[in-house]
Amino acid sequence: MTQPDAQIVTRFAPSPTGYLHIGGARTALFNWLFARGRGGRFLLRIEDTDRERSTPEATEAILRGLTWLGLDWDGEVVSQFDRRDRHAEVAREMLARGHAYKCFATQEEIEAFREAARAEGRSTLFQSPWRDADPATHPDGPHVIRLKAPREGATVVEDAVQGTVTFRNDQLDDMVCLRSDGTPTYMLAVVVDDHDMGVTHVIRGDDHLNNAARQTQVYHAMGWTVPVWAHIPLIHGPDGKKLSKRHGAVGLEEYQAMGYPAAGMRNYLARLGWAHGDAEFFTDAEAKAWFDLEGIGRAPARLDFKKLENLCGQHIAATPDAQLLPEIEAFLVAAGKPPLSQAQKDGLSRALYCLRERSKTFPELVEKAHFVLSSRPLDLDERAQAALDTVSRGILHELTPHLQNASWTREELEAVVAAAAGAHGLGLGKIAAPLRAALAGRTVTPSVFDMMLVIGRDETIARLTDAAG
Predict the structure, then answer these.
(1) What class of enzyme is it (predicted)?
(2) 245 is annotated as an active-site residue
């Protein structure tokens, strides 16, 4: 499984115990960008050793979230639980090498040790009496396998983001690698999996920084090459506190349901804690080419919904229609909205050119598309009803026959409407509101001329006739 030394290999290794957190999504993105920008491999491993909390539904949610975000992975998804025999094999190999030992201490004995240590003001790190015991003295019965960690000196983690981080070995205990029931611990499984999968760079949240010290000791015990560590700061809310549900959406799938385009999310998440000069808006190709570990800051990033919306608006404007329409349809499904009919898809496709500008999210775009997604008789909102007073209805009635004979170009439509308004001593802006109301049932819409061009002559005249009464 190990890849050639020259190839960059990264991984994303979530636990399937719930939704995919936006912080996890950013970690996946950083790993994806780092590998893809260097011709490397990006692997996906589901760390499902916690059988009580891991669920297939959570795994599916993770896969859906990554797929929506546009992050593809290489090879099959690896289940950590399925590799438990390999993890146990490594624990026994460390035992044979003298880098691990069997510990027969019971939970009661461990707690008694800690209570005595607290009473005497000593460190409560458990020091097993079995560490250097003669195997001939080993009893029959349940035992764990512990790493025989160095007790003097320090374990140094050279981190590409955090710099050199030193851990005193007398502050690290002999961690359990294999439980008494023969199942591996997470700390061992992670190292074995990363080694076997050929992972060269471990890019993950800085809440794992302490784990890196213990995991480094396992690498050393097995004589394996330690990967490049890169522990990235967590994401905080706008108030500077750890991101939680009180700040709004924290699950990635919520962002799809809220109508943020995937390209905008990728752009925003890439900028959340990483920078390339002053660049704010960039494409995937640019992100892959630019992304590096040196550009990751050490301070926690703050979620800013205004910046997210601004970037998403730019991406909606820049996305070709053929890509935008399927993503809008997927948003409607995610948001629990009715699917579009073929006629609505056709109409929306014709209208996208005048909907994308200044739409920061898909709900905004769909609201502006109301005129082409609705059919007669239109449901007029309160402002639209107010705009269609007696005078306005009269003007619309007069305008209709002129439109019957107009060539259906923007220039002539503007001329015909301007003439109708001028006949009543009105500017074009004064007649725009009742026209919007008649054509869309709303007063906040695209240009009235864009709407006329999109829905066509017959539908335009029919709607004006309805409104004129």
Answers:
(1) ligase
(2) yes
